[in-house]
Amino acid sequence: MTASSAVIHQSLLFAQAFVWGICFSAAYDCLRIIRRGIPHPRWLSAAEDILFWIALAGAVYGLLYRHDDGALRSYTTVGMAVGMLLYTLLLSRRIVEIFGGIFRKIVNYLRKLLKKMRRTFKIENNERRRKGK
Known about the structure:
elongated
């Protein structure tokens, strides 16, 4: 690999790592959105966080293995960190607020619908029992 092709490869890998950082932060926001709609006890949130970061570490290793023979280079680390930081500063809060609110409304609607269905089913069941007696 010539010097210029190495620099091009490293630049492309930095750009990819930047995009990976954005994607990883967006994936974590999905967890945050779910937590807004479905409240979690702290221990479950902690367990989800641990599993998320383990999966993330595996994904990072897989991406680095595929694109740079598994070598963790400073420019890939910086690229991911910058992508995560910019996404978090510029978009994360708004995305979680908007989609978290939408998800919460959907969950609340489904809960009300399920409660209504249970009541209806319970009433029908009670009527059948009375008629059978």
